[in-house]
Design goal:
This protein is α+β, with helices and mostly antiparallel strands. The protein is 26% helix and 23% strand. Helix 1 runs antiparallel to helix 2, helix 10 packs parallel to helix 11 and helix 14 crosses helix 15.
């Protein structure tokens, strides 16, 4: 058995240089060929008809003294299977704003719809574009504005469906329903009409004048203000007729019920034994459980949580755990699986505290305030209560609504915003559950049911660590289930776990990020499926006067265990950033052989690997690998700041700014001596993005992520100079070409698959002699809204990232750790303490 050694944190080795990206050919937009004369006549007529409709509507409303908007909403449509050039549908200088972009799937392709706001006085803007297309030509002899005009299949005045960006089935009818209003505001509005506070007040007063109930709480994102209101279909139509600030309207989703399985009472002597061999640290590291409250008087929880640290979003709710779920989560977040703690018999160190904020009401549903607002309030309350503590947030509350496309919601965006923080030093690690399959009928079709059930809101969050479930639970001792067998085999996906398999786009993050133990189900020979205490995870009961322990399963249990692991990493490395802790959990994860075979994954094919990522993320994390290096397996960590974008010198154009270059302190002599021995390299890049939510399109200029980073590693045949020139155009001489990447296929996941979201991890195996030559690494930016939305003045922002690099050799007798320590001049730290 090898000695546990601390990971090596590298400081000051990143070299910043001016960065210019390689020209990416990419895919060209799909634009249909058009007859110039007939198409321009058609669109000219359609635009004139639209403005006639607007004039007629305004006249009718004025005749009965109804308020009239200052502008108009237009809806543009693409051809079937073709793209719409949405970036050309906005002109900020003229007040023309792209509000939302929606894709409607069809059998033979998608149709793209875009809703655009046109202020009064700019009615001729698109008419002029079409007429220039009809009569004018570019210097290359092509019709002027051809990409835009040819991409437009039709245009009309926008009605309710153009601003409703949720499923039409969720739209209210004659009975009022709670909805989200996504309102646009301007940062630099000169007359103040579209200033944030005026937009807020105008919406509130308009709703009140129409008798529409509206909540005072709001969420604020770049250029978007989100409020909750209760309206009928007619109310929505009237709001659209009155307001110039609507960007989109969405449905409010209801929270899911939690699954609980009661177990038999356990003996109090178990607790006596466990407490007798547990050492509790006096620490400021805390797992904060956002749930149904916690029974803080439970004997296993009282050493880590006091009544003082049990809070609630609404005082009238109290802090008592009315569901039992929060206390079950708390037990796992503190100890992990209690069964393992009871069976171990060794001394246990609990080196973190527990805090709780109740976010669920004791009866009924939440009062339909925004769930994002509730989550942010909960975070704010505990940080006011314990401002100097390091909080890791654990939340297993999701909606029943599946995220079929992976697009952000107000709730997931609020999670991203909270994780990103108010400044560089206020980042937060938020760990959330992927959401469960709880329909017994669907369990019968396992594992196909997992592939068809999508991750639930807000688990699509970019910055959160989203946790799915696998299982090792297959042993059945209950006599009530004679003749039954486990539904999943050991190492396979838990029957409860949702996936992002149905997400068709490459725009959204890999979700879940990882999977932890989530329990299993039973089946008999007749196709019946049931739950059983043997296949759940043991934790603390909220009713200790009746029973000390209870069973929890599914992604809730997995999420609580992930939070326990995060706390253990933070305890060992108190200076590790939240990005680093998240990164180490992902970095340590591996797919089980059973997961690979269960879904017939060919690990050599990138499309097959992509499917596996959408099912179980990066796999099952290893606590030992996340915590420790060994003499034969080395992990290096760099925590760095970078400025992705800047203003071009002498102009207003925004460009990419910095690239970071690392010369990794490889143990080159040892690696060269190993020759043909196979060595594994793994790299993980973790950072948080600032969200820019709203259905304004997820391509071209409009991005959800404020920025994005990528990494690259040199090939064995590349020198330092050749690698830098391949990655960075700014390092090349004028007209210097020929810098292709012949080794891009060496990666298991591949550059395209790993580029989704805000954490990127990949690995490859090669002989040690080749690995010795691959120690040049670059981190560089790609486009985000900080660069593309110049008016928001975020282009000069600095951000930070965590880079984690491991070398793993197969022979435990090999020492690659000590030579690296000598290179970086850090004393070797040996850690043998066992914690939970």
């Amino acid at each position: 058995m090898q000695t546990n050694l601390n990971h090596i944190f590298l400081e000051g080795i990143a070299e910043a240089s001016v960065y210019r990206p390689r020209q990416q050919q990419g895919s060209r937009p799909r634009i249909p060929e058009r007859n110039r004369v007939s198409h321009s006549e058609f669109l000219d007529n359609r635009l004139r008809e639209a403005w006639s409709d607007v004039d007629r509507t305004n006249s009718d409303r004025a005749a009965v003294a109804l308020p009239i908007r200052s502008g108009t909403y237009l809806e543009f449509k693409s051809g079937l299977g073709y793209d719409l050039i949405t970036k050309s549908l906005e002109d900020q200088r003229k007040g023309i704003r792209l509000l939302n972009v929606r894709e409607q799937p069809a059998d033979t392709g998608d149709v793209t719809y875009a809703t655009v706001y046109v202020p009064r006085g700019q009615e001729s803007y698109f008419l002029n574009k079409v007429r220039q297309y009809s009569t004018n030509e570019t210097i290359t002899g092509k019709p002027k504005n051809a990409p835009l005009v040819n991409s437009i299949d039709d245009v009309r005045v926008a009605f309710l469906n153009a601003l409703w960006t949720d499923s039409l089935d969720l739209q209210p009818g004659d009975n009022p329903k709670w909805c989200e209003a996504w309102l646009r505001f301007e940062i630099t509005d000169t007359d103040g009409v579209f200033r944030q506070e005026n937009v807020y007040n105008n919406f509130i007063s308009t709703c009140q004048s129409l008798g529409i109930e509206v909540k005072q709480n709001s969420l604020v994102f770049p250029e978007r203000l989100v409020l909750i209101f209760k309206a009928t279909r007619d109310n929505l139509i009237e709001l659209i007729n009155r307001l110039d600030t609507l960007a989109e309207i969405r449905a409010v989703k209801e929270t899911a019920e939690f699954w609980l399985q009661e177990s038999n009472s356990e003996q109090s002597s178990w607790i006596d034994d466990l407490l007798g061999r547990t050492i509790f640290a006096d620490t400021t590291i805390s797992v904060c459980v956002l749930d149904s409250g916690v029974t803080y008087g439970h004997r296993l929880l009282s050493p880590v949580i006091s009544q003082h640290d049990c809070l609630t979003v609404v005082e009238a709710w109290g802090v008592r755990d009315h569901l039992g779920h929060g206390t079950l989560m708390s037990g796992l977040a503190t100890y992990g699986d209690l069964q393992s703690s009871f069976e171990g018999g060794s001394t246990i160190h609990v080196n973190h505290k527990l805090t709780s904020v109740k976010i669920l009401p004791p009866s009924g549903e939440n009062s339909f305030d925004l769930y994002g607002s509730i989550t942010q309030q909960a975070i704010s309350r505990i940080e006011i209560q314990r401002p100097t503590w390091n909080h890791i947030y654990c939340m297993a509350v999701t909606t029943m609504e599946q995220i079929g496309s992976g697009r952000p919601s107000s709730w997931s965006a609020a999670i991203d915003q909270s994780a990103f923080g108010e400044n560089e030093e206020s980042k937060r690690l938020i760990i959330i559950s992927a959401g469960n399959i709880s329909d017994r009928a669907q369990w019968r079709s396992y594992p196909d049911s997992n592939l068809l059930n999508s991750i639930q809101d807000p688990a699509q969050s970019w910055n959160a660590l989203t946790v799915g479930a696998y299982t090792q639970k297959t042993r059945i001792t209950s006599t009530s289930f004679d003749g039954w067998s486990p539904l999943a085999q050991a190492g396979e996906l838990s029957p409860y776990s949702s996936t992002s398999n149905m997400w068709e786009t490459t725009k959204w993050p890999i979700k879940p990020d990882v999977v932890f133990e989530g329990g299993n189900l039973l089946r008999d020979g007749e196709g019946n499926v049931d739950s059983c205490g043997d296949l759940g995870i043991l934790s603390t009961s909220s009713r200790p006067l009746l029973q000390q322990f209870d069973i929890i399963s599914a992604t809730s249990a997995a999420t609580a265990q992930a939070s326990n692991m995060a706390a253990r990493i933070q305890t060992l490395y108190p200076d590790a950033w939240p990005e680093t802790v998240r990164g180490l959990i992902v970095h340590s994860a591996e797919w089980t052989d059973q997961l690979i075979s269960q879904f017939a994954i060919d690990i050599t094919r990138k499309t097959s690997v992509k499917k596996l990522l959408r099912i179980c993320g990066y796999g099952v994390p290893s606590l030992d690998k996340a915590l420790f290096s060994t003499s034969s397996s080395l992990t290096l960590i760099a925590q760095e700041y970078i400025q992705p974008y800047d203003r071009a010198q002498g102009g207003s154009r925004l460009i990419t700014k910095d690239m970071h270059f690392f010369k990794l302190p490889w143990p080159n002599e040892v690696l060269r001596d190993l020759g043909e021995t196979q060595v594994k390299v793994r790299i993980t890049l973790s950072y948080f993005i600032e969200p820019g939510p709203g259905e304004v399109g997820w391509k071209d200029r409009y991005r959800y992520a404020s920025h994005a980073l990528r990494f690259d590693l040199n090939n064995p045949s590349e020198s330092e100079e050749e690698f830098i020139k391949r990655v960075n155009v700014a390092a090349r001489q004028e007209d210097e070409t020929g810098f292709s990447d012949p080794g891009s296929e060496r990666w298991v996941i591949g550059k395209t698959n790993r580029s989704m979201g805000s954490i990127h991890s990949d690995s490859y195996i090669d002989n040690a002699a080749n690995i010795a030559a691959c120690n040049f690494l670059a981190v560089y930016p790609v486009i985000g809204w900080w660069r593309e939305r110049k008016n928001l003045d975020k282009w000069g922002s600095r951000t930070r990232y965590s880079l984690i690099v491991s070398l793993i050799t197969p022979n435990q007798e090999i020492d690659i750790y000590t030579p690296v320590m000598h290179k970086v001049s850090i004393p070797v730290t040996i850690v043998n303490e066992v914690t939970v």
